[in-house]
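OP here, attaching both records as promised.
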Amino acid sequence: MSAHALGQVVVTHKIGLHARPAVKFIRLAKSFEATVRVRAGDEGDWADGKSIVKILSLKVREGADLRLQAEGDDAEAAIQALIDLVRRDFDEPVHG
């Protein structure tokens, strides 16, 4: 039986989950065997966390509550790694 994991994190990156941050997110998601799904907030459809088109279609902005779910043997590790990436502002330099 495969594992199931859930997580949530607030997006603090100034431009949200767009362009470069989205590419970093999906690259990391693809490094895991688990399926990864994402949505912004409590409502709306879940999007494939390994699809750049689906992630960009969510239009996740700074301050959004990002919900994550994964299913597979490495689901817990996938969720934790993705939460850590978002908390690190996608490893992008801070401008300001």
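Record two, same layout:
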Amino acid sequence: MAAAKQVILVTGASSGIGAAIAERLAADGHRVFGTGRNASGMRANGVEMVSLDVCSDRSVAACVDAVLSRAGHLDVLVNNAGYLLAGAIEDATIQQAHDVFETNFFGIVRLVNAVLPSMRAARAGKIINMSSLAGLVPVPFWGFYNASKFAVEGYSETLRHELAPLGIRVAMVEPGAIRTPLYAQPHPPALAAYSPWRERALKTMKGFEEKAPGPDLVAALLSRLVAKKNPRLRNKLTREATLFPLLRWLLPGGAFESGIRAGFNLDRDR
């Protein structure tokens, strides 16, 4: 039996994982609104595009108001917008670290706050937040990205408890490496003190990305989650996303840490 048609808002839908999710959900027969910074009035592959800057309270309010005005209600929010700041933690300025959290964490908070009044009134809805394996097992030299995804984990689990009595379901998607433009985003200026360990770690992650599946794998999972009445909280995707958290739980802390350092070639002096 086909899933009922739903109204869905997908952030960060102009490229990569977000575009794949929005197009798949539209192909499933749902009415899908996708967002991008300069997307107003565009329509692609059945997705109605709305302009959105997740770092702006005003932009978020205008986006959600536009969706509710055009569709009358909203069934599902998919918080996908985010970006990577790679490099040593000391490489980044406070402003750069702040910007990562503004997009990856507070962007989610803004969207959730904006959609909750209508979902609470309907006593129904789903909120699906894009987390990451990096929110469970930190990746060396991805410090502020890791921290932002750890924040998404704690926030989403708390939100799930608070919204369950109101009929609103909260879930996360926790992918490992996926082949997307995420890895091509710019890095801050690099301090020489962290070379060559930073370069080896980033080269290792680039190798994972080159062998990784494409974003259609994530889109297929979202299709299943949207169809479920009560999706589970954590939805891991890719082999490493299942394996690494399990190893972290099974192995002594020192052994797991040594394995991570060896995998990223961090114990060599030069």
